[in-house]
Structure formats: C-alpha cells, structure tokens
Amino acid sequence: MKMTVNRIRVVVLGSPRSGKSAVVVRYLTKRYIGEYSSTGDFLYTHRVAFDGAVSEVEILDTSNCAIRGCLGEHVRWGDAFAVVYSVCERRSFLAAAELLSLLAQARLPGCAAVTLLGNKRDLEHAREVHAEEGQELSLRFGCQFYEVSAAESCAGAALAFHALLREARALALLLPAPRRKLAAYSVSKVIGTIFGKNSKSVRKKRPSLSI
Ligand code: GDP
Ligand code: MG
C-alpha cells in the first residue's frame, strides 16, 4: 500500500519547570534524563506511522515564550498544542488555563488539536492540583486531558502524543490548511501585540534535532 505523508506541527507550551522538555524527550526517546537545557525553544522532527499513513511530525519544545514574546508566532505556526502543567504547582495550572483560553481565542473552535497534560503525577505527596480539576478544565475548553509522569514511565507521554497526533491528522483531512491557518492569523496578531514583537529573530536562532 502506498503511504501518504502529511506534516503535523506540535507546539508544547506551559510554565517553566512544569516538565515540558522531560515529557517531549520521554515521548521521542523513551528516556528520562532529569535536567534539560531551558535556554530556548527546541525543534524536533520525526516520522510517525499510524492508521496506515505516515506523518512528518515537528515538535516545538518552547521555553519562556510569554517573556520572550513568541507566543503569537507559535500559535500561528502550530497545528496541535500540548499545554503542560505540574500537578505539584497550582500556579502552573492557572497558567495552563490562561494558555488554553488564549488558544481558544486565537484558533476557531475545532481548528486545532489541543491536549492538557498534568505532569509529575509521581509526586503524589506534593500534589496541589487534583485530577478532577484538570478534567474539568479540559471539558471547559473541549480538549483532551492526561495526567502523566515523565519521570516514571513512557506510557502516559506516548498515549497523550499519539492521541494528539491522531486528532491533528483528522482535522487536517477535514479542514483545508488555508482555513486552519486563517483561523489562527487574525487573533495571533492580537497576542503578538500583547506579548511583544521580536519573534522573527527568535525563530532564526531555534536549534533543531531530527530523530
Ligand atoms: P520545562 O522547563 O517545562 O521544560 O521543565 P523540565 O522538563 O526542564 O523539568 C523541570 C524539572 O522537573 C526538572 O528538574 C525535571 O527533572 C523535573 N521533572 C520533569 N518531569 C517530571 C516528572 O514527571 N516527575 C518528577 N518528579 N520530576 C519531573
Ligand atoms: Mg524545557
């Protein structure tokens, strides 16, 4: 059978130290390293085959984009979004709610695949956010939701990313790209004006790795 290839761009957003890099690296390499560089965005590309077709997947592991002013650009760039918080840090959960709200304003409903990931579920003794709260937030924004532990296992991150990619591919088949991108364009201008203007130079400096 001849395989078709489509491209899916995933943006990973969330508070600093919520475990974005740990979750991405766990998904891509099945390993947990513990400490990751947090000096800038990191772009990974890899190919995934599922449901009889191949997708070229680009994953952008972001860092401090609210401060660096590149959130608008990321929202415009992505087809799919993983919003990560730490179940041990309520502040990161509130930031995740804000990011989901921004995405909902910036993308027409149903035009982007979104998943909410509550990371660090291994740290039960330090938990500040109940699983039900994550569930409720995801229901409010109509997105997927998983609690995962990048430190403890590969399974959660793999499940969450596969479900996100499946939804992104389904949307790509349903909606032509211009419509998806147009939906992101106008409101991301608004985000750009809120968060800053130096996004072009940030994109040029982004390191990348193919796996
Ligand atoms: P980022 O800034 O969101 O990319 O967060 P990092 O991936 O750099 O992780 C921040 C810190 O949390 C690091 O010290 C990680 O080792 C730790 N961390 C990440 N995921 C987990 C997890 O699932 N459980 C535990 N216990 N620690 C984690
Ligand atoms: Mg990081």
TrEMBL record:
Chemical reaction(s) catalysed: GTP + H2O = GDP + phosphate + H(+)
SUPFAM superfamilies: P-loop containing nucleoside triphosphate hydrolases (SSF52540)
Class of enzymatic activity (EC top level): hydrolase
Annotated keywords: Hydrolase
Keyword Hydrolase set for record: yes
Enzyme Commission number(s) of this protein: 3.6.5.2
Family: Belongs to the small GTPase superfamily. Ras family.
Protein name: small monomeric GTPase
Species in which this protein is naturally found: Bicyclus anynana
Native organism taxonomy: Eukaryota, Metazoa, Ecdysozoa, Arthropoda, Hexapoda
